[in-house]
Specification:
17 helices; 454 residues; single chain; globular; binds uridine-5'-diphosphate
Length: 454
């Protein structure tokens, strides 16, 4: 385990922009007093498996800052076993929870359990008797469960993964994880449709963003970042991407995610191919930017590099005319602020943001684009469809032939952008009201208080 130090002040920003957050702030201050009485001075430990990359790492810093400013003692631990098989197992588990059956899961299980045993022993040296434990996702779940078996503490499992259908593969995994949930008093899921069979009470808290994080803030002036390992396909061979400033100064459609087949990056590439081939002259001005973590940097995502290479291959198979407008932007995860600035600026300047995930439990990149007031086009994957109401704050594309529909949408965005402007404004307004972190904190209090009183 490594502790991540979190510093900073977020609350003052909400207060300074009170006109957007008036009711939310009232509710926040009202519920905080009650929660402080119950939670008292005990330390709340948030535990997940990565400090950079992915939705959880994105949300925790400002969530923790806010709770600290509201008078709670909150700390952040990363559980990061060195064994590669540990993350192979948790990635396979993640895929299985989306009903993608993965061979070899059972062979990897002993590695996960062994690393979890070691983790449990280490937790014993870190967590003090009265502390509160919040575990995020399956990676640290069993380490925490084994620790809690010997040393019961108030504990919540916050699972950010979700799949709205019950299938044999999905049920098998919930069964496996379910055995380790008895030590927890509450489970938090992102949607009620993700509930599974368990005796532990479930609370629902949708994903949220911080309007004041370095990712979501408004950027002005020239970009200071370079794109070291990114590739573009200008000519036969791929070559380094031009500067970030050059991309930002052009018109482009954007997709941001980890390199993962479930994110449907191949569908965006196929859609863009159809769009350019069928398009009018206007279309030629619009590039495609696909941004994700530098696959060399991400320890907890062993499949990332493989899928990135698949995407490179797909791009090299495009005709030269299409290919030279595609940029695969790989962002180093080592420097949090640099990553945030690159993604934030790309989102801020995009002509339209696409998220065509095959499955999506969470969809934070869509929330970020909605917050920016961008035209957002998503697939009907459950976590995306929950955020975007077709025609109101964005466009939802349904199966089948989603690539064709996305290509049409690219065309519409290229030639009729004004049709999207009202939706984009609505997107931002709705997001400010319902998807900022302060709107979710009273729900966290409720879960923690319920855990303490059960
Ligand atoms: N992200 C990032 N850099 C990248 C790719 C993604 O900072 O290169 C962030 C993205 O902005 C979002 C989060 O990682 O905040 C991804 O969350 P999402 O729920 O979309 O996907 P997850 O990775 O959690 O499945």
């Amino acid at each position: 385990f490594d502790e991540v130090l979190v510093e900073g002040s977020v609350l003052a920003h909400y207060v300074a922009e009170r006109n957007h957050y008036d009711e939310l702030l009232d509710e926040l201050f009202r519920s905080s007093g009650e929660a402080r009485n119950m939670i008292g001075s005990r330390c709340i430990w948030h535990i997940n498996s990565t400090a950079f990359g992915g939705g959880v790492a994105e949300m925790l810093p400002h969530h923790i800052c806010l709770l600290r400013e509201l008078g709670f003692d909150v700390r952040w631990l990363i559980f990061k076993p060195k064994e590669e098989q540990f993350f192979q197992f948790t990635k396979a588990l993640h895929n299985s929870l989306h009903d993608v059956k993965v061979a070899g899961l059972n062979d990897l299980l002993p590695h996960y359990l062994e690393a979890s045993e070691k983790g449990a022993a280490e937790l014993d040296r870190i967590i003090r008797p009265d502390d509160f434990v919040v575990i995020h996702d399956p990676q640290p779940l069993v380490a925490a469960a084994k620790f809690l078996e010997s040393y019961p503490h108030p504990a919540i499992w916050r699972c950010h993964i979700g799949y709205p259908k019950r299938t044999p593969t999905v049920d098998e995994i919930w069964g496996l994880l379910g055995e380790h949930l008895h030590q927890f008093q509450r489970i938090i899921l992102s949607a009620k449709e993700y509930a599974f069979d368990t005796d532990v009470p479930i609370d629902i808290i949708p994903p949220s963003i911080s309007p004041f994080s370095s990712k979501n803030r408004n950027y002005e002036g020239p970009a200071g970042q370079t794109l070291d390992h990114s590739v573009s396909f200008n000519g036969q061979e791929f070559e380094p991407t031009p500067s970030l400033q050059d991309i930002l100064g052009s018109r482009y459609f954007l997709h941001v995610s980890r390199w993962d087949g479930l994110k449907g990056i191949d569908r965006i590439i196929a859609a863009y191919d159809r769009f350019v081939k069928s398009a009018l002259a206007e279309a030629y001005d619009t590039r495609l930017v696909i941004a994700g973590p530098d696959p060399l940097d991400v320890a907890d995502d062993p499949e990332g590099r493989e899928y990135f290479e698949e995407c490179v291959l797909l791009c090299t198979q495009l005709s030269k005319e299409v290919r030279r407008r595609v940029y695969l932007v790989c962002i180093s995860m080592k420097d949090h602020d640099a990553n945030a600035e690159i993604v934030g600026r790309l989102q801020q300047n995009a002509h339209g943001v696409f998220a065509l995930s095959r499955e999506e439990g969470f969809g934070l990149t869509a929330t970020e684009a909605l917050f920016r007031g961008k035209p957002v086009v998503v697939s009907s994957a459950f976590g995306l469809k929950r955020q975007v109401v077709n025609g109101l704050n964005g466009v939802v594309l349904h199966e089948p032939d989603i690539e064709d529909k996305a290509a049409e949408m690219m065309h519409h965005l290229a030639v009729g952008y004004s049709d999207f402007e009202k939706m984009a404004r609505t997107a931002r307004e709705r997001c400010l009201r319902s998807n900022t972190q302060i709107s979710q904190i009273p729900k966290w209090y409720h879960s923690m208080q319920s855990a303490l009183s059960s």
